[in-house]
Write a structure and sequence with these properties.
heterodimer, A: elongated
Chain lengths: ~400, ~180
């Protein structure tokens, strides 16, 4: 088929003419830069020599990750359910392939109870992939999916030498949360955490809000919210006694730590990609659930190249410095569009070192500005954040972990 | 043919000037200078004083030139309207701004929904004439046409010759295996 073109091609002109032939490379590159999806670009590279030469010059790429593999479950052990996943891991070709996204599941184990649900979530896309693709292979190990190969973002991005903007999307958020609970985080990193904003709510409903008498819903929320009666006249900043009961505080702490761990794990596994691409100026790592967003801008990427990441112990995540957190709470927040958040909590986190450098103690919210907090999320959550910022601020400190 | 009466500096009471542009097949188009200036190429010619008697464009046929000028005129009018709205203290004007943006977006979408040959010609013309907005629009359209296609389909759509040897093609396919899964 292509051979036929070859004969008439240059002589005949009109019908067989390559439509891109008279376009300069710069325009073709402009087109490629607008494609985004790395798989589409990979296919482009196969079209012709010219395409193959230009695709690696693309400066803006979007990588949608299909699944995340846990990497160190034992190869032939465990329940049938577990067996599929390690089989997939075993089939991963070079060590490079394993080292990338695999660790998300691993670190979650044993840290906090809740993320084990996340492990289940992350495994199921893998199991689904495995069963779809498994085909009998002659001398393969008993694992049903020995022919599945997985490719790390590092491998896929290897040929893009001029990459400036990179967006990676994970298939799901790492944090398993109960239905009806809201948990979103946004974090930016240089060599370590720059800032993190977390928005949570113990329930999300789209029912019209009930009239505002303090309802009998959640005792914990209630005691926190009911005015004056339970609030001791403490100095601004420290949490009232009432909030330590009923698991209110514990829940928020779990939210906060889970989010920070998820963020630091994402950051940690970006290292090889960042070091492979010295031209990178902007990096975003999101998930299709909209749960967590990690960003790094040009200055932060540069900082990471100059000061490499410190891992936290033996876990595959970046060490968190000592942190100062500002917590805001409201029992009810209504979003534009009618959604109602109950037990809404906003936590704004920065390294203690940065927070004190900006001068002032707990009440310094005004000066450094709260733009980074109110702009962390898109609508409708942005409205919630702004509403929460108007409530009383509580300060917490956390050690490095 | 440029007629003397319609050369570069046709001015009306408001001080709005028009320019004559001549296509490769000798058809003349009169447009507002502001619209014509959306093409950097034309703008430079005007600034260099070459606009008298009309600006000839040997690389652009009448059909495509008409479309390009339609795009420019529409966008120039939109810019003028929004700056008027911006400086007016009329709340109704300000409220209408997002709607006008939507109108422009729908115009663009319909504008670029053309046959492939026309799209290609628009791309060439926008590149040659340096009309950034139109170039962006056309490039994005082509990019959208490429996404989701297999290499073969891309070749067929754009009539591109596969100049790889079978061995080369096999090797590249293996390197980029991830793109096909």
């Amino acid at each position: 088929m292509e051979g036929g073109h070859e004969e008439e091609g240059s002589a005949c002109g009109a019908e067989a003419a390559d439509q891109f032939d008279r376009l300069p490379d710069a325009v073709l590159l402009d087109v490629f830069n607008r494609i985004g999806d790395v798989k589409a670009l990979g296919r482009c590279a196969l079209v012709s020599r010219r395409f193959h030469a230009l695709v690696p010059l693309v400066d803006s790429v979007f990588v949608r990750v299909d699944c995340v593999i846990p990497d160190d479950l034992p190869p032939h052990a465990g329940s049938p359910q577990q067996q599929e996943a390690p089989a997939a891991a075993a089939a991963v070709p070079p060590a490079r392939g394993r080292g990338s996204l695999a660790h998300i599941a691993r670190f979650l184990l044993g840290v906090i109870a809740r993320p084990i649900q996340a492990l289940g979530q992350i495994l199921s896309p893998v199991a689904a992939t495995v069963s779809r693709r498994s085909a009998p292979q002659p001398a393969s190990p008993p694992a049903p999916a020995a022919d599945v190969s997985h490719h790390s973002p590092s491998e896929v991005l290897r040929s893009f030498k001029e990459l400036r903007r990179l967006h990676i999307e994970l298939p799901t958020g790492e944090l398993g949360i109960d239905d009806g609970v809201l948990l979103k985080w946004k974090a930016d990193f240089g060599s370590t955490l720059g800032s993190c904003v977390i928005l949570g709510a113990s329930s999300v409903s789209s029912k019209p809000p009930s009239p505002p008498n303090p309802p009998e819903t959640d005792a914990a929320d209630n005691s926190a919210a009911s005015p004056e009666s339970t609030r001791e006249p403490e100095e601004s900043g420290s949490l009232p006694e009432s909030l330590y009961t009923n698991g209110w505080l514990k829940l928020r702490v779990v939210w906060t730590i889970s989010s920070l761990i998820a963020a630091s794990a994402r950051h940690y596994l970006l290292q090889p990609i960042i070091s492979d691409h010295a031209t990178l100026e902007s990096l975003n790592l999101t998930d299709s659930d909209g749960q967590g967003v990690l960003t790094m801008d040009k200055r932060q990427l540069q900082e990471l190249r100059v000061r490499p990441v410190s891992p936290s112990g033996s876990s595959h995540r970046t060490l968190m410095p000592a942190l100062r957190m500002r917590l805001y709470y409201a029992p009810h927040v209504e979003l534009p569009g009618g959604t109602l958040l109950k037990g809404a909590t906003l936590v704004a986190i920065r390294p203690s070192e940065d927070a004190s450098r900006e001068g002032g103690g707990a009440g310094a919210a005004g000066s450094a500005g709260t733009c980074w907090i109110s702009n962390a999320f898109e609508e409708p959550y942005r409205t919630a954040a702004k509403a929460l910022l108007k409530t009383r601020e509580y300060c917490l400190e956390m050690n490095s972990f | 043919m440029a007629s003397a009466g319609e050369s570069g500096d046709g001015a009306d009471g408001k001080g709005v000037t028009t320019i004559t542009i001549i296509s490769s097949d000798n058809e003349a188009f009169e447009v507002l200078e502001a619209a014509a200036s959306m093409s950097l190429t034309i703008r430079h010619l005007i600034e260099d004083g070459c606009a008298d008697g009309g600006i000839p464009l040997p690389n652009v046929t009448a059909g495509i030139l008409a479309k390009v000028l339609e795009y420019c005129s529409k966008h120039v009018a939109a810019v003028a309207a929004s700056s008027e709205a911006g400086s007016s203290s009329n709340a109704a004007d300000a409220a209408a701004a997002p709607e006008k943006e939507e109108d422009l977006a729908s115009f663009d979408k319909a504008f670029i929904d053309v046959e492939q040959d026309t799209l290609y010609d628009l791309l060439m013309a926008a590149n040659y004439l340096e009309v950034k907005g139109l170039l962006d629009l056309a490039c994005q359209k082509v990019a959208d046409m490429i996404k989701g296609k297999t290499p073969d389909a891309i070749r067929q759509t754009f009539k591109i010759k596969n100049d790889f040897s079978p061995e080369q093609e096999e090797k590249i396919r293996e390197e980029n295996q991830w793109a096909f899964e």
